[in-house]
Amino acid sequence: MEKKLTILDIARLSGVGKSTVSRVLNQDPKVNAQTRARVESVIAQHGFVPSKSARAMRSQSQQVVGIVVSRLDSSSENQAVRGMLETLYQRGYDAVLMESKFSPAKVSEHLAVLERRGVDGIILFAFNDLDYAAMAPLREKLVLMARERPGFSSVCFDDDGAVRAVLAHLGERGLTEVAYLGVERSDLTTGLRRHQAYLDYCREQGRTPRSALGDLGLQSGYRLAAELLTPTTQAMVCASDTLAIGAAKYLQEQGRTDILVSGLGSNPMLTFLFANTLSLDFGYKDAGILAARQLLDQIEEGQPPRATIAPCQPL
Amino acid sequence: MEKKLTILDIARLSGVGKSTVSRVLNQDPKVNAQTRARVESVIAQHGFVPSKSARAMRSQSQQVVGIVVSRLDSSSENQAVRGMLETLYQRGYDAVLMESKFSPAKVSEHLAVLERRGVDGIILFAFNDLDYAAMAPLREKLVLMARERPGFSSVCFDDDGAVRAVLAHLGERGLTEVAYLGVERSDLTTGLRRHQAYLDYCREQGRTPRSALGDLGLQSGYRLAAELLTPTTQAMVCASDTLAIGAAKYLQEQGRTDILVSGLGSNPMLTFLFANTLSLDFGYKDAGILAARQLLDQIEEGQPPRATIAPCQPL
């Protein structure tokens, strides 16, 4: 006697995804005729009957995804959220939005509410000191943004690749006296990873690094530029566009507009305001699209969590 | 024989809101003992029995509010949304977020989805050319942001008051040669209303207005400043901080940092980058809080739609 098949077995035998099988079972008109015929023939052949509880679970889905941003006024997160919303909306999902303001306690609270509401999935903009143990039961329906974590699904920005792309570009332009303005290394991505990429690059090139770290504000960029400037400085690479704007202002005041200032994040203000500047586009929106797709692959197709690094745009 | 009482009658007789009566009926522990006793005594006295359908409707509430923003990357809308989320969250509601990108068709589509989902209420960042006739059935559970409309509930920013506050402040500083950089009057609020406030103020003060209108971008501010600058200009009042940044850059290049540039919106970049500038805080976050409260008053207490103008912050 044949062993009882699951919906996943039917999907594999038909060469389609789990969600397509679901759609066939639920008589969704959006499945094309050929696919429907193939799935139905596999079902007929193997005598598959969906369990009552599976059908009930399926129909209980609200098609809602929770998105927990760290700050509503973060330009990078907004770009990513825009990509997520477009993707989710196209696939028939809506998004509930919450803001954590970098508080691990608020994250826990928001996740508990989303759980109680029975949302289908969650995208969380992660940061330091989150309680990953408490999140473990959510793993299958969770995607972390901007932080990876063993066992969890994630989409990270390419911090290392972005800083290296900028440094390589400056190298091609013959600039070798390149200082780095960064963020404290307690911040894993904007802080540690970007700074480390600069240090590694200098070592590989046999150069002496010259860097200083501060907070994320405009004033910090201004102050760090003052700290690092020497008569021979040719370029300043900054961990963010905000720092770059602060630095460019200082250099303008000092009459040192010969120094190239680079930022990260593609803020139009930097290049509009200051002539000798450039900014690398991190591809935040595309990263948001990737994250939404990855989440839907998990919750609709049963794919396992995976760690993705979203590529940055070429300079 | 007594006429059958509604839940609203019980609320009035008890001197509490409709939602408090609901909470007492649903044995919500958050109602304080004294209030509960008062409501229960009124109920006992008048023999009120909630109708089955009213109870069913009440329990069907998902405590979800839809927010339709025009652009996710709008700093002013983000500030307002932050105020909304905080207020809704405190009151036990979550928010589903959608983006219209200023497309009336997208607004219709989003509203239809929110309706199908049975959300409790909707806050819509409104703009030109919306189909208000189609929205009429939603009136009781809808609040418009940034546009008022007869019969609809709304929270508007004080465009007229903000421009007048800036002009009065410049007057106190003895500046009378004041040009205005604005946005096309096809935009009702940032365009028409702010420009009109400037024209009215000039007429009242017996001054000759000097203004030019363009789009919302940085380049537009730069270009309009070039167009309006005269040897005697003392100040430039701009319809937005973005325009003000563009204008300040032009004036810096011309060596005319004697001219004061004012923006609207409290963007920290303007005052950080340019010395002789100021920006009036529109109070966007407070306006968001007002809108959320107004919506909850409508859907929980049955209050009628009303038009509110959120005050701007003093300079």
From TrEMBL, chains A, B:
* Gene Ontology terms: biological process: negative regulation of DNA-templated transcription; trehalose metabolic process
- SMART domains registered for this protein in UniProt: HTH_LACI (SM00354)
Coiled coil start-end: none
Keywords, sorted A to Z = DNA-binding, Transcription, Transcription regulation
UniProt cross-references to InterPro entries, sorted A to Z = HTH_LacI, Lambda_DNA-bd_dom_sf, Peripla_BP/Lac1_sug-bd_dom, Peripla_BP_I, Trehalos_R_gpbac
Please list the GO terms describing molecular function: DNA-binding transcription factor activity; transcription cis-regulatory region binding
Query: What domain of life?
Result: Bacteria
Q: What is this protein called?
A: HTH-type transcriptional regulator TreR
Q: Look up and give the organism this protein is from.
A: Aeromonas caviae (Aeromonas punctata)
Encoding gene (name): treR
